[in-house]
Each structure stands twice: as structure tokens, then as C-alpha cells.
């Protein structure tokens, strides 16, 4: 009975278009901003732009009284954590580090730093397949880092209300 009631509740909520209002979590000063990056067409910039738009952030061209989110650096790193019997690399930990600065007029600059980690099983016998898998993992890490940046921007709400 509980399963049926839960199913009905889930179907009712998804059918009516109900969803969380994420834009109310972000401070008012960060709901309209300019996204700046050294490479506007990089994978990280593109995914961050999409995540901001999904969270109802209005992206505008640069102007004086608009907050700026400046993507400072994106770096990747990998460490070997296990090897095959033949002393070849087997498993790696991939790390993505992203640094950004939220520059809010009349409030100041707030540095934001996030990182994402994934494990990757590297088998040189299937190099082409592993290359495609690694690209998919990296894209997933960019999306996770973008969501973490938005969460950190939401955490600025207390700082900005002072």
C-alpha cells in the first residue's frame, strides 16, 4: 500500500510540473551576472554557462553595476593508485581543480575553489575505448565542479546580507 501511495505521489508531482526553485537560493546580486573566462569556448566555460542558465541566472554582457563570475583557472591531475602485474598503470584518480572569483559591486571579491575526483581504470589494450570513457568522465567532472561553484555562490548569501 505504501509503495502505491508513494508512486501516486511521485507521479502527481512530476505530472504537474512542480520543481524546486533554485534561483531563490542564490543571492539577489548573483542572479544577474557576467561570466568571464580566459577561454570563453573551453569545455568548463561552456558547461558552467549551461549550469548557470539551468539555475535561472541571467547572463549579460559586462557592465559596471553587474556582478562578475571570473573563471580564474582549471587544472587536471592524475595519480596512479594501482598497477597490473606487468608494472603497467591500472587505475588512476583523476582530479579537477577549478578556481573562480565572484566580484560583486560594492561588496568585494569572493574567491571560490572546488575540486572533483573520479577513479579511472586504464587498460592500454583498449586505448580508443578508454580515451572516449575518459572524455565522458572529464565532462561529468566539469558538470560536478560547475554545480559545486553554484552551491558556493549560494553560500555567499550570508556574507552579502551583512
TrEMBL record:
Keyword Signal: yes
GO biological process: Gram-negative-bacterium-type cell outer membrane assembly; lipopolysaccharide transport
Subcellular compartments: Cell outer membrane
Main location as per UniProt: membrane
Superkingdom as given in the UniProt entry: Bacteria
Gene Ontology annotations for the cellular component aspect, listed alphabetically: cell outer membrane; transporter complex
Membrane-topology annotation of the record: Lipid-anchor
Cited PROSITE patterns: PROKAR_LIPOPROTEIN
Pfam families: LptE (PF04390)
Keywords from the named record: Cell outer membrane, Lipoprotein, Membrane, Palmitate, Signal
InterPro entries hit by this protein: LPS_assembly_LptE (IPR007485)
GO molecular function: lipopolysaccharide binding
Family of this protein: Belongs to the LptE lipoprotein family.
Subunit structure: Component of the lipopolysaccharide transport and assembly complex. Interacts with LptD.
Function: Together with LptD, is involved in the assembly of lipopolysaccharide (LPS) at the surface of the outer membrane. Required for the proper assembly of LptD. Binds LPS and may serve as the LPS recognition site at the outer membrane.
Name the record gives this protein: LPS-assembly lipoprotein LptE
